[in-house]
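cron nightly-structures :: item 1 of 1
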Amino acid sequence: MSKNTTVTASEIGDFVFCKRGWWLRQNRKLSEPTEAMIEGKLKHESLARHIEMSKTIQILSLTFFVLGLLCSLLLLVKLCFFP
């Protein structure tokens, strides 16, 4: 970190997003993104999309599972009480 003891919100965001990128900006004083940084950013974005897709699939799977249980329960009630 620089000699300045103030930490900005954007620095915190950078650190949370990618600790290595934050360190590189602080210690190597990189102002222009390098090719490796651009590639890393693209990989981070791709991973974020995959994580969001996984969350969506998980929610849909759970929803269909619960719907299947409810349908099974209704069928069981129908068969037991209304032959």
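cron nightly-structures :: done
The chain has two domains: 1-31, 35-83.
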